[in-house]
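Q: Could you fold this chain for me?
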Amino acid sequence: MEPADAHYRPSLVGTSASIAVRARQLSKIYGTRETRVHALRSVSVDIERGRFTAIMGPSGSGKSTLMHCLAALEPATSGQIWIGRSKITRLNERQLTRLRRDKIGFIFQAYNLIPTLTAVENITLPMDIARRQADPKWLKSVIDTVGLADRLRHRPSQLSGGQQQRVAVARALTSRPDIIFGDEPTGNLDSHAGSRVLSLLRNSVDDLGQTVVLVTHDPTAASYADRVLFMADGSIVDEALTPTTDTIVKCMLHLARGDQRPAVPPARASQGDA
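A: Sure. Below is the predicted structure, expressed as structure tokens.
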């Protein structure tokens, strides 16, 4: 049985076989004494495998901190995290580096492409660094999904912002990670290019079976997800399944007013939590 937790709701957990990332009693504190800031407050949540999850909340709500902890980019102050069967809160830095390389894909607001490499060289770079050969059929499937077959020999300076971000999406997919984390990946794109990238992430879930977690402040971006988690003051305070832009805006308005009552009907509780 899991320990009691005021921020642990049945609708936020699932069966172990269906879970890509699991967090229990997760806390993150910055600073000491009078400068202490509780970025996360005993958060427990499961991220479901093969689904698209968005995390939203006002500035300072803890959404980026939660993603960084779940993605093993920074340590939690207390609590436990599992990615698949790996309990990452027990791993040393070398083991974490290997886990991030082999199990996790990242897409950030900055494209982080190597300017001297072609698009296809940027896409396969993580595999090359790991001295692993990309599966040719999977690589072709990814390239077809992101629509870059005619741009593979172009360098980043020869690509638009949207095309560069599609290269970043393909790079994250190529190693077939257990999960992809995106931190405002469409923040530097216009609405058309942003929609294209979000559609690619949606298709990677629907067509390639990928698991995606997206941190965003944009209700339209979050509406591409299967599930939206809403954060305030370091806690998950609400969620929406099969969300629409209108539903998301309604939830955000409730949070802005400080209303802690759910803005949408609660999700049906999952059964059989391990």
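A (continued): The mean pLDDT is 85.
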